[in-house]
Amino acid sequence: MKNMKAIIPVAVAAIIWLLPVPEGLTVNAMRYLGIFLAVILALILEPLPNSAVGLIGCTLAAALQLVPLADGKPAGLGGSLSWALSGFVDSTVWLIFVAYMFAMGYEKTGLGKRIALLLMKKLGGKALGLGFATAFADLALAPFIPSNTARSAGSVYPVIKNIPPMYGSLPEKDPRKIGAYLMWICIATTSVTSSLFLTGLAPNLLALSLIGKAPNVEAAQVAINWTDWFICVLPVGVILFLLVPILTYIIYPPTQKVFAETPKWAAAELQKLGPITTKEITMLLMALVALGLWIFGGSLLNATTVALVVLCLMIVLNVISWDDVISNKSAWNTLTWFATLVAMASGLARVGFLKWLGAIFAGYLGGASMFVIMFGLLAFFYFSHYFFASLTAHTTAIMPVLLATGAAVPGMDMRLLGMMLAGSLGIMGILTPYGTGPSPVYYNTGYIEKKTFWIFGSVFGFIFFAVYAIFAMFWFPSALAM
Length: 482
Hints:
By secondary structure, the protein is mainly alpha-helical. Helices cover 70% and strands 0% of the residues. The longest helix is centred in the middle third of the chain and has 26 residues.
């Protein structure tokens, strides 16, 4: 099976290399397309770690000198290497990396666990309050942890999983008592918070890098910072965040409504943790400093600079050590993975493929209103996630094509289109049991029947899209103009 997973991407690349070159494309563009599609398939099938797949794809394209310079001239050996390494100097890639260090700070100091337990103690006495406590625990961590797997499955779930068994709610016995309700709120909430904050999901940052690399688009003209994102998504994010526990309570209610033991259990767990430590307070202050500068300091420092400054302070103040930084395999793995994907996506534009394909798609859209075009591109991007098991692979494969299509439409507001597409990445994760990182964790707990998980994914996914699309079409233009 593993050999087959490796053979399929190679076979697809070979087939594309042997196909006749369409008019308007070069031989190098077709060969690069073959490598790119092989990388996407390998990201989905995973014959090798994702970061290794990206590195192999970049290295092969550079060695074959398939990608020209930005002005279209042959790159040569030096230019090809510069292109292959270009993702490693992309500021958003480093913002993702530093955000992983924030996550490590929460975990190492115990602050993330303390926040979740405090919410359980205050709100956990009744079913709806327990649902909101679960949701707020994710919300408190979302601006600083770009891996929703680490945030939801790694920080929230280890606390939440202890509650259902206290009341005899087990996967094989009385799952609807409280277990199923809490598990669904966990996965639905993290999908919402992943869209609410630019730094709440790593592919959000990848998407922003791709917007500036669309054909005939100046990166400076389509720049979107942390505050722009937050202002755009805040209204729809708040509505969906509040809707999740309430709607779940209505259509999938727990059979037990009062949970007197939960606040007591949370209080006991907090007592085991002991008084809040100096490191926890420092970590909290660092998080607030980063959040404050992201929101209010955009004119002074960009988001990546803020993150790097706070990381340095965390090291100096001994919240984390330099050994912690260099030993964080997940962070370095993600940096390599995203840096190579940014380069690969930019290569599609450089070889001329995106401009060629965008012009074809734009031709089919001739005569349609701008409103219909933007809505259609958003709907396609959102619901095509049914065919992807990775938000990163989905972003890398589909977003450049849709951006190129939009860029070929006269009068298209590319900054608005990019924000509309990128902002939907988190919420689309609710669609399937494999739609986002934490989904398999909650799917495999057994609390929610498999058929029910699929049905709820479609129901909540459609509701999320409908609410999001309304704000994206009517609120985002005003928000980006502020």
